[in-house]
Amino acid sequence: MHSKASHFKLTHDKEKTDLVKFPSHDPFKLKSDHEIWQAFKGGNESAFIHIYNSCYDSLVQYGINFSMDRELIRDCIQDLFIELREKRSKIGITDCIKPYLFVIFRRKINRYLKLKARISKIQIEKVQDKFEFELSFEQKLINKQLNGEQIQQLNQAISKLTNQEREIIFLFFYEGYTYPQISDILGYTKVKTARSLLYKALSALRKTLETSSVGHLYTLLLF
Amino acid sequence: MKEKDYKNYLLEDFLLDDDFRSWVHDGDKKLDYFWQKWMDSHPEKVEDVLTARQILYSMKFMPVMVEEDERGDTLQNIIQRKTSAYGSFNSGDNFVPFRKRSNKVLFSIAASIALLIIAAGSFYFMNIDPDMRETRLSDTVIQKSTVKGQKLTHTLPDGSKVILNSESQISYVDHFHGSSRMVRLTGEAFFEVVEDKSRPFTVITGNTSTQVLGTSFNVNAFPENNETKVSLLTGKVRVFANNEEDSKWEVFLEPGQKVSIDRTSGEFIQSRYDFVREMGWKENILVFDKADHESVVKELERWYGVNITTVNNPPLKWEIKGHFKDASLEEVLESLQYTNKIEFKIENKNVELKF
Q: In CATH terms, are A19-124 and A139-221 the same topology?
């Protein structure tokens, strides 16, 4: 074990997943969320475009965990921003724009999904009341790190978690949100709830990984 | 870096440790050295460190691909305030700032303002082009509307047929992209729907929706009436309230049945219908069924596209019953003249009725 660790060369994955492209003249690029939001509320269209461009992809990314219906996700984002513009002078103040939009987006997409289920009732015969928050690791991005079997193990472990646990993992690790922000998005009154749920989820993940029968993930990782 | 109690860390503790995560994500060389040394002196923890590190890498997930066009087109729709079909079911969200969730007065004001804007918006679209037969707002939303005295037969992108009565409007997303076919209607229309089990066809009218797989039916939802009526000719439809609170209201209609929905109470009343009375209009039959003089005037205005001014009131309450097939306005008024004492004058599109 010891020797293996010594041979293990530490490398870093420099790949960044920064997909948002700002126009070079974006005057809000370096401004704080507070300033951007105030400008938007005051009717500044560049501020709106900045908010839109910097949040669109994240909302899609969050959305596909609820549903693979890209059109529905798009409709949801579209309607959210229409309402946001219409109510711009009336809405509250925020220093963290993206998590604020996540709160609204989450409510909206759940409503749209219920509506979609109601509309499709004739075909599917029963209404789904529960919506799955899916989360899965993709081999393509991380093939340098894990092989297909390992990813499958991880995904199996993830799939044993509850919807809420999966969603917390996404918000914490993927979006990098803080516990208070996660509590706002998920509607917890106590910040402690988010922290303990996340801890519980990760412990459960570890336990599943430890008991995985075929090809123990731990040993597989030590090439 | 301050030495934490790493030797007692479990996998989850590493994952949640800020310093550990910033080492993995930011790749600080000095920290590389620290961790290399730390693993050398704690071989029993090597597995945990490496596993946590690999998991953090994989936590990046697969970034979703968003086409430039998608983001741009959606922005266009936002600026033009084109709410999606889903959005037209629902009133908007409450944009409540964090930790200030009790400001109820603010929400109701915000909600009513949004409603006004939407109402004003559709009014605007109905009026920009008084002789509108087709208005292509963009490549995405198509609107068809009729003015007084006009009817319109239109084929939808899926081949379904709509006959639009006077002063009515439908709108739908071009090509019905997505998993369902949704049409918004104000006024009255008859639908002959092409069967497509994978994509239900839904007509949205204010607070009610009618859904079919393949069938023909009539929806009457003029804004000035206090009821919406759906009458089924063939096939099977499901009519339901859009509002979640009213979700108990849902009926399945058989051919020959109709449902009348009271707009105030939201109540659904199912009954049999008379074909000529409900769908005669599309065969060009003007129908009066125990109509008082006000509804006769309103109906004649709509049917013939005229403005009627009235003088006096009828001495007795009218209860007009009758069918007029392919009749001119003059013929209708003449026959009313025999049974009820009226005088009329027609000058182009202006009619004077004297009771």
A: no
Q: Which residues of A touch B70 (CB under 8 A)?
A: 74
B117 interface with A at CB cutoff 8 Å = yes
Nearest Cα of chain A lies from the Cα of B81 at a distance, in angstroms, of: 6
Q: What is the pLDDT of residue B58?
A: 67
| B125: three-class secondary structure by DSSP | helix
State yes or no: pLDDT of B247 exceeds 60: yes
* Residue of B59, B239, B248 best to disrupt the A interface, most CBs of A under 10 A: B59
**What phi, psi does A210 have (nearest 5°)?**
-65, -35
Q: What is the pLDDT of residue B166?
A: 87
Task: Write the ipTM.
Answer: 0.72
pLDDT at position A223 is: 34
Amino acid at B162: V
Span B305-323, pLDDT tens digits: 899 998 888 878 888 888 8
Closest CA to B195 of B161, B238, B156, B160: B160
Domains and CATH numbers, chain B: 6-58 (no CATH), 135-277 (2.60.120.1440), 284-354 (3.55.50.30)
Domain covering A19-124, topology: Rna Polymerase Sigma Factor; Chain: A (1.10.1740)
| Closest Cβ–Cβ partner in A77, A87, A198 for B114 | A87
Q: What's residue B281's pLDDT? A: 87
Q: Minimal Cα distance from B106: which residue of A? A: A90
A127 touches chain B (CB under 8 A): no
Asked if B125 and B137 touch (Cβ cutoff 8 Å), the reply is yes
Judge whether A129 is closer than 8 Å to chain B, CB to CB: no
**Interface mutation target, options A4, A33, A83, chain B, most CBs of B under 10 Å:** A83
The domain spans of chain A are 19-124, 139-221
Q: For residue A195, what pLDDT is reported?
A: 92
3-state secondary structure chain A: CHHHHHHCCCCCCCCCCCCCCCCCCCCCCCCCHHHHHHHHHCCCHHHHHHHHHHHHHHHHHHHCCCCCCHHHHHHHHHHHHHHHHHCCCCCCCCCCHHHHHHHHHHHHHHHHHHHHHHHCHHHHCCCCCCCCCCCCCCHHHHCCCCCHHHHHHHHHHHHCCCHHHHHHHHHHHHCCCCHHHHHHHHCCCCHHHHHHHHHHHHHHHHHHHHHCCCCCHHHHHCC
pLDDT digits 0-9 by tens, A61-76 = 888 888 878 888 999 9
- CA closest to A63 among chain B residues: B64
Overall average pLDDT of the B163-170 stretch: 88
What CATH architecture does domain A139-221 belong to?
Answer: Orthogonal Bundle (1.10)
CA distances from B134 to A173, A195, B177, B218, B251 (A): 50, 56, 19, 21, 33
